[in-house]
Amino acid sequence: MLNKTIVRWQNDFLHNDIKSLVVVHDNKDNITITLDGGVVFKGSEKELVKILDNIINLPIDETIKSQNSQIRVFALMDKRCGKKKIAAHKAVDKYESDVLCVRKYVTVRSN
């Protein structure tokens, strides 16, 4: 069974345009999250909950500018991160090294 923080992120923070593309694989030892088949996160539940706590509890402006690439990736999938925020933070250009499947999604949304 998924942690309540993970479920809350899926239900309340994940952008509606990609909800159907995101799959959470809950294995015994780790969790893998994919977006349209590309791996967004792979690690322990504890690591994921720590990242999602930041996403849920911090303003989106702080998370999108985070030095932590994992937090940035989840911020870019957040429904609070719209076209204007992406453009204001130049998220597409600034974070070229972020996960490819998320970068494609953000590029499409920012145009």
Q: What's the gyration radius in Å?
A: 13 Å
Q: Let me know the average pLDDT.
A: 83
Mind summarizing the main beta sheet? 3 strands, antiparallel
Helix content: 40-55%
Architecture overview:
The longest helix is centred in the middle third of the chain and has 13 residues, at 45-57. With 111 residues, the chain is of the alpha+beta class. The chain has one domain (4-110). The chain has seven helices and three strands. The model has no long low-confidence stretch (mean pLDDT 83). Strand 1 and strand 2 (31-35) form a beta hairpin. It has a three-stranded antiparallel β-sheet.
Kindly list the characteristics that best describe this protein:
single chain, alpha+beta, 3-stranded antiparallel β-sheet, 14% strand, 111 residues, globular
